[in-house]
Amino acid sequence: YVRICLLSMLDTSADISAQSVTATVRVVNGVEAIPHSWPWQVSMQASPFSPIPYMHGCGGSLIHEEWILTAAHCFIPLNVPSFWRMCLGKHHMNSSMDIPSAEECYKVDTIIRHKGFVYEQDPNDITNDIALVHLAKPVNMTKEISPICLPKPGVVMPAGTPCFVTGWGDEKGKNSNLFPKVAEKLNQAALPVIDFETCSKPAYWWDTLRPSMICAGYESPDELKSACQGDSGGPLACTAATAAGGTNTTWEVHGIVSFGAQGCIRDKKPSVFTRVSAFSDWIDSIISV
């Protein structure tokens, strides 16, 4: 895995880092990402039975030639592998608008949710919201498809660290429809990390927040940007340089979109992500077998 990840980043990091430096955009009320600049982004699509067409349900991250990292809640109630396909190399939701042959979709043979995953009636009371999806065959790596690296175990990003969330989720964020409008093109947002002490205050997420989570976003109403419905499971990507204080532009998936406020954009309710570095041992125990 490490070898594949590092080789892929040597091929792609220059293009990604160049556009990330100046980006000040968002997913809600969003701006389009540069096509194929986030080559690990996955569109997880479900079709319970024929003739229902596959529809985008969640995002995910390619972390290995056979494994997708995502949120456990994405598989409620559709937890049957044959219902799903994982599409990579995608920018336009309408495949006919994309680069010919860039997109590849893969069947799923196994879905592994964390055994400690808890999803109560309150959709914001979620713990261990992490899952791994095993593909039926290895991914063919291309310029448009390559994995993102995992962070070092236990790493906690400092407050103010600029990270990016990407996805095809609801672009408006002003309602709580069960079937929000999916973006036509992949969007991205620059979201600064908010420290645990602040995000766990009563005015923020209080006791809903766990140490295995990470908050990112903005606090004042005039600058609210957020992940939203349809972005769930997608990555919060940060460069290794921001974690180590260096200049390395290797990208790492530090968060998995987990939950947020109803309507997605509310004062003092930033997006909440599963902190990937808190689950390093769990991930390694599965993908290293």
Automatic annotation (TrEMBL):
Q: Does the keyword Hydrolase apply?
A: yes
Task: Identify one Pfam family in the record.
Answer: Trypsin
Task: Please name the GO terms that the record assigns under molecular function.
Answer: serine-type endopeptidase activity
Output the GO biological process annotations, alphabetical, semicolon-separated: proteolysis
* Positions of transmembrane segments: none
Q: Where is the Peptidase S1 domain?
A: 27-288
Q: Which UniProt keywords apply?
A: Disulfide bond, Hydrolase, Protease, Serine protease
SUPFAM superfamilies, alphabetized:
Trypsin-like serine proteases
InterPro entries named in the record = Peptidase_S1_Elastase_sf, Peptidase_S1_PA, Peptidase_S1_PA_chymotrypsin, Peptidase_S1A, Trypsin_dom, TRYPSIN_HIS, TRYPSIN_SER
What's the domain of life for this entry?
Answer: Eukaryota
Q: Which GO terms describe its cellular component?
A: extracellular space
Q: Where is the signal peptide?
A: none
Q: What name appears for this protein in its UniProt entry?
A: Peptidase S1 domain-containing protein
UniProt source species: Maylandia zebra (zebra mbuna)
Its ancestry begins with: Eukaryota, Metazoa, Chordata, Craniata, Vertebrata
